[in-house]
Amino acid sequence: MHARTIDSLALDNYQRAARVVLANHLITRSYPDRIALPLIRRWATELREDLAELFGYRLEVTESTARLFPVLDSLDAGRPARTAADRLFDRRRYAYLALALAALGRAGDQITLSELADQVASYTERVDGLDLAADRAGDRDAFVDAVGWLAARGAVTLADGDAGGWASDPEAGEALYDIDRSVVFALFRPPRALQHLQSVTGLLGEEAGGGDTRSPAMALASRAVRRALVEQPVVYADDLTEPHRSLLAQEKLVHEVELVTGLKAERRAEGVALIDSSGRLSDVRFPGTGTLAQVALLLAGEIADLVLDLDNPVARIPRPERPRADLADQLDTAIPVTTVFAPLADTVDIFAAEQDSDDEDAEPEIPDYPFIESGWIRDTVRMLTGRYGATFAAQWQADVPGLTVEVVGLLERLRLIERVDTTASGSPASDDLGSGLLILPALARYRGAIVTIRTRAETELFISPTDVGADSTATTQLDSSGAGTSAAPHLDGPEEDTRAAADNSELVATEKGSGS
After folding, report:
1. Distance CA 209, CA 216 (A)
2. What is the β-pairing status of strands 58-61 and 264-268?
3. What's 512's DSSP letter?
4. DSSP string spanning 110-148?
5. CA–CA separation, 466 vs 248, rounded Å?
6. Helix, strand, or coil here: 438?
7. pLDDT tens across 492-513, in order?
């Protein structure tokens, strides 16, 4: 592994390059910023070999792009594409994105937005239930969002005009784009030919190989555990099966990931989390600024206080079974069967049970977790709104139920809680709390939040002498029992601008020990 031989003075630069490429699988001259591609090119050889050895990833670096081809071990619906305004992509936007990419691959060096829309519209005629009508504002907005996603990554660059003008009135507005063909070709590079797959699960997993001297099965398992460490906020031992659970407990394996990424592992009996204080390896910063992140931290503190109250113990239940094939089945129903080349179809079921030996393994102990009913969650968010609501963004002051759902969704993406429905099978809908929440162990690290209410002075042309030096900050502290940490978890990303508080004050919630 090259990371072991790099000089200590240069190791930090190498680790920064590794974090950038792991967080952004596509890197161009302008995405995610202008210094990323030169940094990756500086360490291209070392990164290519280390990422292949440790994670099974393939890295291709050219003069204008760097493309990481990760290995997916499971389907994850928690990382959707987002618009420039941070709205989630829906099915229509995903479809337009894929078809626009196909059209750009056949285009020249430039294309107008209307020409691209016409080409995509012709493609949609071949897809049942999909169309692009330029006279429908909803279709135009969705199409512009898809093109904006490509523009953010450098596949197209606006040369003239305005996409927003076309979206408002296609007869009056127009936009001209330069096409970067190297980025277009780098974007769509599936690891296997899609026409040969009968199931989306054929895109998962990796082939045995690489430079590992151990048995192929153990090498594959080791890389899978390392991948989990860099791809998940927290890796819980209870979620793993052997030999993955034993590998997670190996200090050497975790240290290898620390050495390459520059992150520090926080190890507990329940699992391992990489702590990313750099903010360059993740898509959500927590703790962070903005109403959602601040209320989520406060809610986590309230939940921790409830769970740790020995005088009033909460109920505990095991985690319900969630078949991993559910999402795969939904995606498989959208595959146009007539396009699958059957003789080479991949029919391997990766979810099938492995036949390792004839020996009967002992039944594993089924752990249980604290369970909090959804009514308590709603009441607590209302209480926090009543106490600090004047500092919230205006949209959340008027929509406490929506705030509750979004905050719970954030905590779930961080793997701090899990929504469950004890009255029905399956998972609760994304806009529903279900019966309640299972509290996962990592949430305990956020107990004892510190709250500061800061009043911002109005901008004035003249300030009287009595105003100079006036203390405009009032502070109140929540129950800070228990130990906290000052490092942010393995999460980071765009921060929400929520400064528009009704009474010109702002809420600043931090972990105990990190200051205010």
Report:
1. 7
2. unpaired
3. T
4. EEEHHHHHHHHHHHHTTSTT----TT-HHHHHHHHHHHH
5. 61
6. strand
7. 333 344 334 445 556 666 665 5
Query: Dihedral angle at the C-alpha atoms of 134, 139, 141, 146, nearest 10 degrees?
Result: -100
Phi and psi torsions of 171, nearest 5°: -75, -30
Q: The whole model's pTM is what?
A: 0.78
**How many whole angstroms separate alpha carbon 51 and alpha carbon 49?**
6
Distance from C-alpha of 183 to C-alpha of 66, rounded to nearest angstrom: 9
Taking Cα atoms as reference points, which of 250, 268, 221, 240 lies closest to residue 364? Answer: 240
Residue 516 to residue 514: CA distance in whole angstroms:
7
Q: Cβ-count burial of 339 within 10 angstroms (0-12 exposed, 13-18 middle, 19+ buried)?
A: exposed
Contact 104, 146 (CB under 8 A): no
Phi and psi of 188, rounded to 5°? Answer: -105, 95
Helix (H, G, I), strand (E, B), or coil: what is residue 474? strand
**What is d(CA 431, CA 325) in angstroms, rounded to the nearest whole number?**
22
Residue closest to 86 by CA, chosen among 263, 255, 292, 318: 292
3-state secondary structure of 330: helix
- If you count them, how many residues does the chain have? 516
Tokens of 22: 């792991």
Helix, strand, or coil here: 369? strand
pLDDT digits (tens, 9 = 90+) for 230-275: 999 999 998 898 899 999 999 999 999 999 999 999 998 899 999 8
Cβ–Cβ < 8 Å for 165, 173: yes
For residue 3 the two structure tokens come to 């990371």
Residue at token pair 């102990």 = 365
